[in-house]
Specification:
The complex is a heterodimer of chains A (130) and B (240). With 130 residues, chain A is mainly alpha-helical. Helix content of chain A is 53%, strand content 0%. Chain B is an all-alpha fold. Chain B has helices spanning 6-26, 41-68, 71-103, 112-125, 127-132, 137-164, 183-224. The longest helix of chain B is centred in the last third of the chain and has 42 residues, at 183-224. Classes of the chains: A mainly alpha (130), B mainly alpha (240). Chains A and B meet through helix 1 and helix 5 of A and helix 2, helix 3, helix 6 and helix 7 of B.
C-alpha cells in the first residue's frame, strides 16, 4: 500500500476523460436499466388489466356480463342470456354491481364497485400470495 | 394516490440533473490536484450521500410500520431500501472507476471509507433474501421492518466510525466548516446533491405508483375471482 501515491498528480485530459465518461455512462446505464425494468412491469400490469377487462365483460363462463351488455349495443339475445331485464346475470351475482354508482359507458368501469366489496381492510392489506 | 405530483417532480428532476451536469462540465473549475478526474466527485459523492440517507429513511418508515401496523409504511420502507441499494451499486462502480484513475487500483481494502460502505451495501443486499425467506406476509413485513431499523441505525454509527478512523488515501471532504471546497465547486456540488435527492424521491414515487397499480390489479383479480395471471413477487410488498 505504500506504493499508493498519496498526492496524485492530475491525469492528462485524454486519459482522465475516459474514466469520467465511464463513471457518468455507468450512472446513465443504471438509470436506463431501471427504467426498462419498470417499463416491462408496467406492460405486464397493462396486460393483466386487459385480461381482467375481458374477464369482467365475458364472465367466467364466457357469457357477457350485464355491464358489458349495457355498454355495447348488442342484439336482444344477449340480454336474454342473462335473464329478464333488471335481473342480474350469473356473472353479476358473483361480482355485485351497484347500478346507482355504475357509470354509463366503458365496460371496464364496471369493475370499480367490485373493488368496494373487498371491504375497508383491503385498503392496506398485503396479498397472501407469497 | 402515489402518482400524484409525479409529473412535476419528474420535470424538476430532469431540470436539476441537466443543470447539475452543465455546472459540472462548464462551470466548476478543474481540481488543482486531481484535474479533470475530480468531476466524478459530483456524481459519486451525491450518490453515496443519498443512498446512505435513503437507508436511514427506510428505517424511519419501518419504525412507522411497527408503530402503526400500516402496511403502506412497510412498502415505503422496502422501496426506499430498494432504491438506495440501486444507488449503492452506482456508488461502488463510480468509486472504483475514480479509484482506478486516481490511485491506480480498483479497490483498496485498507481504506476504511471504502470497506465500510461495502459492508453497509452487503448488509442491505441481504435484505432481499431475508424478506424472501419468510412466507407469511405479516411476519415478513414485521421482520423486514426490524431489519430496516437495525441496519438503518448502523449507518450513522458506521459513518461516525469512518470519520474517527485514520484515512489512508480516501479524501475527507466536508470535514471543515466551509466544506473544504471553493464556492463554485460547493455550489455545483449542492446542485448535484439536490438533483440526486430529487431523482431518488422520483424513482421511489414511481416504484410505489407501479406497485400500487399492480396491487389494484390483484385486488380486482381477487374480487372478480379471476385466475392468476402468472408468478407473483414474493419479496416486494403490495401497496394499494
Amino acid at each position: 500500500m505504500s506504493l499508493l501515491p498519496l498526492g496524485t498528480p492530475a491525469l492528462p485530459l485524454d486519459e482522465a476523460g475516459k474514466y469520467v465518461a465511464g463513471a457518468y455512462i455507468v450512472f446513465v446505464l443504471l438509470l436506463v436499466i431501471y427504467v426498462s425494468i419498470m417499463a416491462i412491469k408496467l406492460q405486464r400490469i397493462e396486460k393483466e388489466l386487459r385480461e381482467l377487462a375481458t374477464f369482467a365483460e365475458q364472465g367466467p363462463s364466457g357469457t357477457p356480463e350485464r355491464g358489458a351488455a349495457q355498454s355495447s349495443p348488442g342484439p336482444p339475445e344477449r340480454g336474454a342470456e342473462q335473464g329478464s331485464p333488471g335481473t342480474p346475470g350469473r356473472g353479476a351475482e358473483d361480482v355485485p354491481v351497484d347500478s346507482k354508482t355504475q357509470p354509463a359507458g366503458g365496460s371496464d368501469r364496471n369493475l370499480v364497485p367490485s373493488e368496494a366489496t373487498a371491504g375497508p381492510s383491503a385498503e392496506i392489506r398485503g396479498s397472501s400470495d407469497v | 394516490m402515489y402518482g400524484k405530483g409525479l409529473k412535476p417532480l419528474s420535470i424538476a428532476t430532469v431540470v436539476a440533473l441537466a443543470a447539475g451536469l452543465s455546472l459540472v462540465f462548464f462551470y466548476a473549475p478543474n481540481d488543482a490536484d486531481q484535474g479533470f478526474i475530480q468531476k466524478i466527485f459530483y456524481l459519486h459523492v451525491p450518490l453515496a450521500m443519498v443512498s446512505l440517507v435513503g437507508f436511514i429513511v427506510g428505517g424511519v418508515f419501518a419504525i412507522l410500520h411497527l408503530r402503526s401496523g400500516d402496511r403502506r409504511w412497510d412498502a415505503y420502507s422496502y422501496v426506499s431500501i430498494h432504491m438506495s441499494v440501486i444507488f449503492g451499486v452506482g456508488v461502488l462502480i463510480t468509486g472504483s472507476i475514480w479509484a482506478k484513475a486516481s490511485w491506480g487500483h480498483w479497490w483498496v481494502w485498507e481504506e476504511p471509507t471504502l470497506v465500510s460502505y461495502l459492508i453497509v451495501f452487503l448488509l442491505y443486499a441481504t435484505y432481499y433474501p431475508f424478506r424472501y425467506a419468510i412466507e407469511d406476509r405479516d411476519r415478513q413485513a414485521r421482520y423486514a421492518s426490524v431489519f430496516a431499523i437495525t441496519a438503518g441505525s448502523f449507518v450513522p454509527l458506521n459513518f461516525i466510525a469512518v470519520r474517527l478512523s485514520e484515512s489512508l488515501v480516501h479524501p475527507r471532504v466536508f470535514a471543515t466548516t466551509n466544506g473544504g471546497l471553493p464556492a463554485s465547486m460547493m455550489f455545483t456540488f449542492l446542485v448535484c446533491l439536490t438533483a440526486m435527492a430529487l431523482l431518488w424521491v422520483t424513482l421511489v414515487k414511481f416504484e410505489l405508483t407501479a406497485k400500487s397499480a399492480s396491487g389494484q390489479v390483484k385486488r380486482l383479480r381477487r374480487a372478480l375471482d379471476a385466475p392468476p395471471a402468472g408468478p407473483r413477487s414474493r419479496i416486494a410488498p403490495e401497496v394499494s
